[in-house]
Amino acid sequence: MGTIEGVLLTPLKIIEGSSGNVWHGLKNDESSFAGFGEAYFSGVLQHAVKGWKRHRVMILNIVVPVGVIHFVLFDGRENSISYGQFQEIILSQQNYQRLTVPPGVWMAFKGMDDQNLLLNIASIKHDPSEAENLPLVNEFIHYKPFLV
């Protein structure tokens, strides 16, 4: 497992307060900010796996404020220096970072806790025509750990 070209992990702050905490997500002056299209939350049940999916245009900026989510990325971009490589990342409050995923990188993820929630701050509004899905078992991406 290596690092995929263009994938960024940005440490984020959790500011503790007596009446509740503040979790940072993304600021418009950060180098990974590529515009704003929409922000949405996605719940992931424990042991449930979502993926494989890749976007042709959208840049994903994912944070996990609740639970633990195991992400697996696969570089299917033939012109990339990391073509064919996998990268695994586990995000949680204990590893509170923003995962930035560039267009063309496949992603799947699995919920690890009872309750898991991710926030995606997407660079463009949702457009189903710019995304592609593959089943977990397919002829292109050979990754088995999610199946056990």
What is this structure, in a nutshell?
By secondary structure, the chain is mainly β. It is built from no helices and twelve strands. It is 0% helix and 43% strand.
Helices and strands in order, then pairings?
Blueprint: E1 8-11, E2 14-15, E3 22-23, E4 38-43, E5 49-55, E6 60-66, E7 68-75, E8 86-92, E9 97-101, E10 105-111, E11 117-122, E12 131-133
Antiparallel strand pairs: 1-9, 2-3, 4-11, 5-10, 5-12, 6-9, 6-11, 7-8, 7-10
Chain oligomer state: single chain
Query: What overall geometry do the principal axes of the alpha carbons give?
Result: globular
CATH superfamily: Jelly Rolls
Average pLDDT, to the nearest integer? 94
**Largest sheet strand order:** 1-9-6-11-4
Give the CATH topology. Answer: Jelly Rolls
Total domains: 1
Radius of gyration: 15 Å
Structural class: mainly beta
The total of helices stands at 0
Biggest beta sheet summary: 5 strands, antiparallel
The counted number of beta strands is: 12
What's the N-to-C terminus distance? 19 Å
Q: Name the helicity range.
A: under 10%
Word description of this protein:
The chain is mainly beta and 148 residues long. It has one domain (8-147): Sandwich (Jelly Rolls), CATH 2.60.120. It contains no helices and twelve strands. It has strands at residues 8-11, 14-15, 22-23, 38-43, 49-55, 60-66, 68-75, 86-92, 97-101, 105-111, 117-122, 131-133. A five-stranded antiparallel sheet has the order 1-9-6-11-4, with no helix packed on it. It is globular, with a radius of gyration of 15 Å. The mean pLDDT is 94.
